[in-house]
Amino acid sequence: MNDISPKERLFRVLEKKTVDRPPVICPGGMMNSATVDVMKECGASFPTVHHSAEAMERLSSSVQTRTGFENFGIPYCMTVEAEVLGSEIDFGNEECEPKIAKERYEFSRDVPIHDVKKLVKEGRIEAIAKAGYEIGRKNPDIPVIGSLTGPVSTAASIVDPMTFLKELRRDKENANRVLDYVADFLIEYAKVLVESGFPVITIADPTATGEILGPKMFGDYAVPYLNKLVDGIHALDTPVIVHICGRLESVEKHLAGIHADAISTDAMVNLKNIKAACGVGTVMGNLSTFALQLQTPDVIQRATEKLLSDKIDIISPACGLSTTTPADNIRVMTETVKQSG
Amino acid sequence: MATEQELHQGLYDAVVDMDEEQSAELASEVVKAGYDAYAAIEQGLSKGMDKVGELYEQEEYFIPELLLCSDAMYAGIDILKPHIVREETRVQHKVVIGVVEGDTHDIGKNLVKIMLESAGFEVIDLGRDIKAQAFIDAAEENGAEIIALSTLMTTAMPSMQEVVELLEKQDKRDKYKVLIGGGPISPNFAKKIRADAYASTAAEAARIAKDFAAAEEAALQSA
């Protein structure tokens, strides 16, 4: 396996085949990997980069070269979906990623159903697809990962989130209607990305956590809609990584029921135990992003070595990187993994 | 006709059971019967919300439940509030709260607001993505004693530090207790930026705020 490419290594891990060492990746989206250092070096910076295929291509390529991550990750935020579905976006600044300024709807019952095939022609989707296509064409051996915002988080980005969370109990019919619609839209969006050459999709759904929803609602809403989306992407012959935020104790029993090819988690989760106890086949994670931002190289190296000795299948940051993370710190992480092979 | 105690228990149950209509109905009964509105809030609704806070900490309830319970509490409070007999001696402590500049995630802030209000504080909610000086201006204008800052984003954490530093620069640091919290926040970070306290949950934030208020009352009495 001397000449195994990063793309092949990631595919093999997601197919549960043996590899020489774990891939080390950072998928983008919520798990943003773009830092101010790299933006300055390549001249493609937040917030203008979010709108330009050419700038995204430049930034993601530079992030890959500079950090050593074995993938490209686009986009750099979780607002692409909500923007298309009508919410007002605050595009942030040089250091701060875009966020929702105002959700489009007050209640779930106010959400109209539009044709998802038309929706995917709107907003930044085309630019993201084009950036991924160009990067993939020029770098056939390194996977371009497309990052989606999960169904519950997207729904809570177009309907006022406080109201939406209450409606999961009080207006189940409309909450389900919105989630169904959002999942259909996300499948269509994933299809555009896959057709543009994104070989792997990652979903992060930070509103759909055990800590926010509790085990019952996680089972009633997060799991079925994540699975609807994952199944839709699997139908395109494309593997899916699902990232779950926060502590997992309350939802451990649901993890094995998620159809993802790998489960990624936050820093406080003991991935080794999750893998052993919860029937989760392939796990990804979970180097503290605080360590990456604030710690010295020797601490980062030791933390990476711990993940390697715990036999974590895919090594990655535990969350989105702070944009002020030093690129050299990330480099220590990726080099440590690469030297382990 | 229900006794006052029965109504208090009913209000408590309505909050814990997330029953907005029942809470409003019983609150109207309190008013009709001429019972003390303040006691109904304190002994019924607030106590119910305390129980909800406990259930939340025990992971029996999660955020959707907590929000629905608070709706039930507010439904009762809205009806009872106009009937509170003002007592000069009753001091209501004030808290200015908001999500700091650079962040719009406000679920956590809203939970803290609910727990503070149910603990008897008057809460001035500035909303989300709030500039450092706006916290100070609001605290000054309203005569607040506590400034509560929230963020979910690491990139917005320096905005918390800015609030403390502005207070120091403007010689107002001793006038306010600064309480911080949110996903990426730690006790160490609170210490580093010289905030007065860190709270890991909404219920803890309310407990700490009560301690601050009690300490201030004690200081006033001994002065």
Automatic annotation (TrEMBL), chain A:
GO terms for molecular function: methyltransferase activity; uroporphyrinogen decarboxylase activity. SUPFAM superfamilies: UROD/MetE-like. The keyword Ribonucleoprotein does not apply. Keywords: Methyltransferase, Transferase. It comes from the Bacteria. Residues 6-339 form the Uroporphyrinogen decarboxylase (URO-D) domain. GO terms for biological process: methylation; porphyrin-containing compound biosynthetic process. This is [methyl-Co(III) methanol-specific corrinoid protein]:coenzyme M methyltransferase. The lineage of its organism: Bacteria, Bacillati, Bacillota, Negativicutes, Selenomonadales.
TrEMBL record, chain B:
Signal peptide: none annotated. One of its GO terms (biological process) is homocysteine metabolic process. GO terms for molecular function: cobalamin binding; metal ion binding; methionine synthase activity. Keywords: Cobalt, Metal-binding, Methyltransferase, Transferase. CDD domains: corrinoid_protein_B12-BD (cd02070). Residues 92-223 form the B12-binding domain. GO terms for cellular component: cytosol. PROSITE patterns: B12_BINDING, B12_BINDING_NTER. Belongs to the methylamine corrinoid protein family. This is Methyltransferase cognate corrinoid proteins.
